[in-house]
């Protein structure tokens, strides 16, 4: 079982990101779960979204998890939210930030002993450049694709096109570019 | 002629979307709705299927849930296939009309996305609304995940509309935990679903002007009792049709439903019995307990009304200590579900220990560890031969431990 926790603000697309990821993962024959802790949350409020991925049907419906990956798509939440909560010795962190990896880790004491498991990528800037608005969920999927090594980039892009099929071609293209850029830039 | 909506063999749907797809494939004629969180997308999606020409139906937006169920009654009495969805306060406002629907023997299918009842206001899942409907004369089925919310909605039309049943039916799923959790769902093709559900053959439809009928007549002490007794008997007797429909569904999909589901119960000493998504988490916990040497099992109620007393007794007969889990504030009594199970076991030969756990109110999480603690307490009871804790306890509650009622011992 692979478990993923997203830290985001309502409106940044973590829920869609988690569902999109679930959709793509399901095409590989795996069983998925995607859910979020929100409800009456207003735009801008901190929220958490979750994925579970397994070879067999997933029966665990608890919100509690020890995540394998923590994806932070809001730069400020990396500083203010408890992003290392219930983590493991192998948990990998992908954090969106304009800072360098060293600067970011320096600023977050909880990450000091996890340096080799932290990855950074500027999902906000990438989405501003490609999608033309701050929509950091798509780039995060590209970064996750690279760090997790769960799929080839081309496979992921092809399937995301299907997930996004209801949108105009221009938006699909921009998302493909955002995913590819984050895939190449995450470090 | 409706436009074909494409579905794949494998989809990633949440419980709400799955239920709305079942309404589309069942060719529901009329949905009368007043949307409420977390069930909103079910009726919203149906409305969009109508608006986009995917279904030849009618979506009627009304001013309250009371009006929504009233509209469903009108459309159902007219002879249509009718459905809607609601939750929580909306369900509570519908209650008065739920009794009208069942008393008039109208085969309406209500998708209930379970949510807590205020106050305090809370949008998340518990079973307070489900329990509120338990004496309303409706059949009630419980889905543990999105796939089941879809499957059971399809089955519900077949069961409710069967001429020897003619009763409305609720399909319950847990708010957010099921309704907003996307997971793999394997839907039927449009054609297969349509064929399975079939076309409604209404009884005493009001649009048949050649044969006028009355709905909602008054009966006082002369006949009211006989009507209600007949209704109760119809609920009790619906068992055969429910089992036949489930059997046919298994034939079609390979997915098997029973009025009561049992997991790891063959040699179980201790068990958790529950409803809704909790059942699946409990299965995970039971597997872990077995690795620790505890013979743990899980029993789940699929059909809550009619309540499967005999099946509960049969499933639990070898068990030494049983934890009955209620996800609703008991309001000054043991949990309602506890009372059902205790009643079933009181009349059994084995007379096991039966305990009550109140959990998950307002969406409070129930982790695998929480459930393992419940199993461990059952094992301690089994070893001691009596209930070592309070009979009713609150699980994962903040603050000091809360429990009530102890076993009478010499």
Spell out the blueprint of helices and strands.
The complex is a heterodimer of chains A (187) and B (410).
Chain A: E1 2-9, H1 14-26, E2 31-37, E3 46-54, E4 69-72, H2 77-80, E5 92-96, H3 101-107, E6 118-121, H4 123-130, H5 137-148, H6 153-163, H7 169-185
Parallel strand pairs in A: 1-4, 4-5, 5-6
Antiparallel strand pairs in A: 1-3, 2-3
Chain B: E1 11-13, H1 15-25, E2 30-33, H2 40-51, E3 58-61, H3 65-78, E4 82-86, H4 88-103, E5 109-114, H5 128-132, E6 139-142, H6 146-161, E7 169-174, E8 182-185, H7 190-197, H8 224-237, H9 239-253, E9 260-263, E10 270-274, H10 278-291, E11 296-301, E12 303-305, H11 309-315, E13 321-326, H12 336-346, E14 353-358, H13 368-384, E15 392-394, E16 403-404
Parallel strand pairs in B: 2-3, 2-4, 4-5, 5-7, 6-7, 10-11, 10-13, 13-14, 14-15
Antiparallel strand pairs in B: 1-8, 6-12, 9-11, 15-16
CATH topology (fold) name of the largest domain in chain B: Rossmann fold
Strand order of the largest sheet of chain A: 2-3-1-4-5-6
Percent range for β-strand residues of chain B = 15-25%
Number of helices of chain B: 13
- What is the count of helical runs of chain A? 7
Summed up, the domain count of chain B is 2
Look at the structure and name the CATH superfamily of chain A. Answer: Pyruvate-ferredoxin oxidoreductase, PFOR, domain III
The count of strands of chain A amounts to 6
Shape of chain B: globular
Strand order of the largest sheet of chain B: 3-2-4-5-7-6-12
Q: How many β-strand runs of chain B?
A: 16
The H-level CATH homologous superfamily of the largest domain in chain B, spelled out, is Thiamin diphosphate (ThDP)-binding fold, Pyr/PP domains
Indicate the percent of residues in helices of chain B: 25-40%
Biggest interface goes to: A-B, 22 and 28 residues
What does the largest sheet of chain B look like? 7 strands, mixed
